[in-house]
Design a protein that fits this description.
8 helices; 30% helix; alpha/beta; 239 residues
Length: 239
């Protein structure tokens, strides 16, 4: 594993994992969750990166500023954009860039795939129990005050920020999105993925919802059937 920085702030770095043999096509970007809060870091993504590199994938486990250590609006979004674009400097194959994000990371990964000014475009997304409907999440108190804390207010206070950040409001993407979610998730409701995929499909987007057994954290348990759904999807998503 190689640590590489994309900025001067301590959280502006990522971990690059390369397989011992010839890698499979492209690179997988891992965006960790934790409701965008500073107490949760990229250690959440390390087991995923280790599992994927063992399967032959190059992985970029991305850290970023969160609420409480310089993040929030717009720093968290700036960091995810800069972190993905940093792949252009790392001697990796960026012909396929699949972003996998869990929980809050699912929102960030899906947002990153909609960037129109990307130096390194995201070519597919896997959202694991992602917070994909920010307006509803803010109003329902998903993660407590996590969404208003991220964006600096509620949907009625800073609607223009929700317009930019909310994946549901930016459908359809030009790339495929696989939403993987457990109906038994009591942290991020299954309805978050359900609403996003329905809206994306109605708008003509390539979006699919896969219901899996378990709870919120089953999706990042690399021994689980829910994780196997993610790994098995990567080849058809271009990786």
């Amino acid at each position: 594993m190689i640590r590489s920085t994309y900025g001067a702030d301590p959280p502006q770095f990522g971990q690059l994992y390369r397989p011992s043999g010839a890698p499979l096509r492209g690179v997988v970007v891992i965006v960790h969750g934790g409701f965008w809060r500073a107490q949760y870091g990229l250690s959440l993504g390390e087991p995923l990166a280790q599992a994927l590199v063992g399967a032959g994938y190059v992985c970029w486990n991305l850290e970023y500023r969160r609420v409480g250590n310089g993040g929030g609006w717009p720093a968290t979004f700036d960091d995810v954009a800069a972190g993905v674009d940093h792949l252009a400097t790392l001697d990796v194959d960026t012909s396929a860039v699949v972003a996998i994000g869990h929980s809050a990371g699912g929102q960030l990964a899906t947002w990153a795939a909609g960037r129109t000014d990307a130096r390194v475009p995201v070519t597919a997304v896997v959202s694991q129990a992602g917070v994909l409907d920010l307006r509803r999440a803010a109003r329902d108190g998903v993660g407590g005050a996590a969404v208003p804390d991220l964006l600096g207010g509620g949907p009625d206070d800073v609607p223009e920020r929700y317009d930019v950040a909310d994946p549901l409001g930016r459908v359809p993407l030009a790339v495929p999105v696989l939403a993987v979610h457990a109906r038994g998730d009591d942290i991020v409701p299954f309805a978050q993925s359900e609403a996003y995929v329905s809206a994306a499909q109605t708008a003509g987007g390539q979006a699919e919802l896969r219901e899996v057994p378990g709870d919120h954290f089953t999706l990042i348990d690399v021994t689980s059937a829910a994780w196997r759904v993610v790994v098995d999807a990567l080849p058809r998503l271009g990786a």
